[in-house]
Structures are given as C-alpha cells and as structure tokens.
Amino acid sequence: MASIARSALSFARPVKATNTNSLSFSPVRKGNAFLRMQPVPMRFAACCAAKKDTVDKVCEIVKKQLALADDTEVSGASKFSELGADSLDTVEIVMGLEEEFKISVEESSAQSIATVEDAAELIDKLVAEK
C-alpha cells in the first residue's frame, strides 16, 4: 500500500524496485476520480557503500590496533564493540586511520563510527573532499 504526500512516496512494506532510474504507476481509478501517476526519480534506492580496498585497509588497521588473532574475521559489518574495543581503542583506531589515509577526522564524526563500514565510508568521503 502506497500513500502520496507532496512529491514523496512511502510504502507500508518493503518494495523491491527493478528499474533504478524511475518508478511509474499505471492510471488508477478510485470512485469518480481518475488519478494518473507520473514517473518519480528513485530517491529511496540510494546506497553509499565504501570502496572494497578502503574497507580492507580499515579491517587491517582495526585488527592491528586491537591486537586480534590472524584468524579473527573482521568485515565491513563488524562492530568495534563486538571486537572488544572500548572508547580508548576506538580513539586509537581513528588515529591510525588518520595516519594511514592522511586525513583529519573531526570529533563529532569520530563519535558516529560504530562499524568498519562506517569508518570506511567516512574515509572515502574525506579523501574525496581533499
């Protein structure tokens, strides 16, 4: 079930779109009113994944900073807290990332990093802004 408010769409349950360029609807008749929907840009399908090599480098740095065993699996979805990192460890990880990628992470941005993917996305953004 979809509802329309101004130019936005909201869906009661997840919708899988097959066309990533636009979304269109067939004409609908409700009572005496005839509604025709125009194509709408896909605003809800945006995805901002970090580059794979950035994620891999972040994984290496996290493993090194936390002194994790070589067989410990660290991926983009890995949360620092689940890997045993406390707040000081997280600060040291951010410092290691700043040094490796030659960037500067603001404290407010650093506090929003919870996963390897979060860190990699932030790094990609900061490197692109350089």
Q: Can you describe this structure?
A:
With 130 residues, the protein is of the alpha+beta class. The protein has two domains: 2-41, no CATH class; 52-129, ACP-like (Non-ribosomal Peptide Synthetase Peptidyl Carrier Protein, Chain A). Helix content is 36%, strand content 14%. The protein contains four helices and six strands, in the order ββββββαααα. The protein has helices spanning 52-65, 87-101, 107-110, 116-129, and strands spanning 2-5, 8-11, 22-23, 28-30, 33-35, 40-41. It has a two-stranded antiparallel ribbon. A two-stranded antiparallel sheet has the order 3-6. Helix 1 (52-65) packs across helix 2 (87-101) and helix 1 crosses helix 4. Residues 1-26 have low confidence and may be disordered.
Topology:
Elements: E1 2-5, E2 8-11, E3 22-23, E4 28-30, E5 33-35, E6 40-41, H1 52-65, H2 87-101, H3 107-110, H4 116-129
Antiparallel strand pairs: 1-2, 3-6, 4-5
Helix pairs in contact: 1-2, 1-4
Structure characteristics:
130 residues, alpha+beta, Non-ribosomal Peptide Synthetase Peptidyl Carrier Protein, Chain A, 2 domains, two-stranded antiparallel sheet, 4 helices, 6 strands, 36% helix, 14% strand
Order of strands in the sheet with most strands? 1-2
Radius of gyration, in Å, reads: 21 Å
Provide the domain count.
2
Task: Count all strands and give the number.
Answer: 6
